[in-house]
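Inputs:
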Amino acid sequence: MSRPGFVLEVDDRTPPLLVHEGLGFRLEEFPLGTRVIYPPEPIASIADVDGAIRDALLDPVDSEPLPALLFPGMRLTIAFDDISLPLPTMRAPDLRGRIIEQVLTLAAEKGVDDVELIAANALHRRMSAAEIKHIVGERVFRSFWPQGALYNHDAEDRDNLEHLGLTEKGEDVEINKRAATSDLLVYVNINLVAMDGGHKSVGIGLASYKSLKHHHNAKTMVNSRSFMDHKHSEMHSSAWRMGRLIKKHVKVFQIETTVDNNIFPKPYDFLMKREWEWSIKDQASALAMRRGLAIAPQKLRHKMFHDLRSVYGLTGINAGEVEAVHERTIRKVHEQQRVKIEGQSDVVVMGVPYLGPYNVNSTMNPILAACMGLGYYFNSYLGQPVVRQGGVAILYHPLDEGFNTLTHPSYVDFYEEVLAESTDPAVVGEKFEQQFATDPWYVHLYRTSHAYHGVHPFYMWYWIAHALDHLGDVIWVGGDRRAAARMGFRSASTLHDALEMASSTVGGSPSITYLHNPPHLLADVR
Amino acid sequence: MSFWRDTVADVRQVKRGWRWGHRAQVPRSAEEFVPPASSSIYPNDWSRTPWAAAAREVAQKVGLEPVFRSQVRTQVSGLSVLDGLTGPVIFVANHASHLDTPLVLLSLPDEWRRRTAVAAAADYFFDTWWRAVGSSLLFNTLPIDRRGGTLSATPGEVLGDGWSLLIFPEGTRSTDGYLGSFRMGAAYLAVEHGVPVVPIVHRGTFAAMPRGVSWPSRGRRQLTIRFGEPLVPGEGESARELAPRIKQAVARLLDEEETDWYASLRRSAAGQTPDPAGPDIAQWRRIWTSSQSPAVGPDRPRAWGR
């Protein structure tokens, strides 16, 4: 039986609480009275996954069954979420592969020959063959990869982009040509958090920079309150307008899945348990892991965490019309992640873990760490932020992983040149975005190597625009001082030092809320 | 050096945070989310075999009693009530501390002590094998399911085998030293098996070693224990009728502790026995009063005062 998420109030009986910090964690003793938000435990999952997939395809929402949409001679395109989902990576077989196999089985029965599969990576890095194979499975990979019919979306391939027109607000809608000109576009998603899915899948995942810049900018991001609530998010409103325009040009059959939050397999399962329920074995594991990490070289620590594969349970699958499907998906996501909280606090504490959507098999550089804390975690709310306007965010991360020049080359220049000039999202966007977005070297690396697009670090910085606008101060516990200062933040050695530093902003006895994630939680703040 | 220093600091933090050597605690705000205890209860029928009884005799006489006497002082009254009894009986006592069980057992005459088993919460004393073995061997405990509200079949069998039972009808230790509500188990067993109930009250254990403390406080605190007249279930008397009589007997004994035997009898006859649940005052005042050890006179006349 899954227990709901709840708000713990730290008292004299509370043991030290686990806080993630990059490639490690610490056990923190929070001040008495601190609120700690725990996500719900993994909800019930579906035992017969293949049966559930078949049912969803044959009995979709507001759509004809998939077999009725398939016919000989048609152009069928299957797009799917890239490696940024789920987090951590799913242990094989990946859900997307299992769904795609069933879609292809139906297509083969209907005699469909013209099939292509596209990873909807937008401006994310191209995935390697091994990464794609992990997602789609060996059978699909063997059938399509050698023929060039399974590939990454290329947002810079002008010949293979289709401009579908402008929305009522004048936004360009430009997506992958193959997808736009198909008789049927099947999209297979994994809806890890509430901001994923819906019209964001095709409208963003298969789009070009020309289209993305309309909602990926500082102004839109500041007015997305929050990203996890698509009805109150400017970014999603824009994506929804685009999605409705896309619908007029191409038939989209959306398949959305939700998974439980069973993210840490054994022997790391203690990382998900409530600390006061830790057995002797859990305590020993925590101690052993902490001491082991203390002497392990960075490379080994990185391998230890990044080799971790999660055994998710499928909690829901819906297929059919995009918006109708997404409503059902969101309900399931809320069931797994939503926690009701009464009122805001002066300080919010967040532990930034080793992994975010943009450093799978790569490094969590300082910009990505900021994006994870102040972008994802800060914005993971419904209603209002966990911390009050003018409050303080205290984050844990060493900010010392450096930059991976294979995957994040433009981040290096963004960090060294752009942030040295300004940390204001609006200013850096205005002044530098175009230059990075059109730089031929970055475009070349994006198209031919495994690099994030040149403009991507700007998007990360826009992600945190709402937090920067809302917060009075940001302090990193255990963070590299120079890295924190470069991003316009401060660092402290301990939580108590951080609270001391925060006292000039929020006073000497602030109310504190610690968001105990991962696993991911969605704070429903009343 | 730094690595070892940090290792020591980590171990200390975990030791302190998870209360090594003590029972784990749940933060108050998380109590409602604690999952039900596992139903695995370790059987302990072996603990009433002759070999286990012999081992227990050694453990109690050589280990428990000297330690107990070195930490607290006791004054026992009313043991003469046992003279006319042959056993088995059900001893019923108020419950304020883990000292209660050794106090009662070590106050009993040896022949009674050797044939007395202690009803103990299965979810507390029988959740791990080592706790089950330890408590069985030292105190002759037997598991009672207190969550379900009914006693398992085991206590009846134990009574049937001629063992006396010590039951704390409150089901848990008092949080402020005063008497809580009584459960029906003792009365039910007494009626079912036709055995007398011997009420017992004791004072001072809350002051000496309340909840959350694992060793008696320093200074050899005074404990008192008083045995009351046995209550024999009447012909056709139900457990529901016997239960209030038991509670009244305990309340009168508590009154006797405060006053004297005759005064408590008169007040009982007049229906004026003080409520054993204590006065309706602030919690801290209740704890404050209970944390005073009882004052007693010398056990026997002394030639010279100390």
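DSSP finds twelve helices and seven strands in chain B. Flag for discussion at group meeting.
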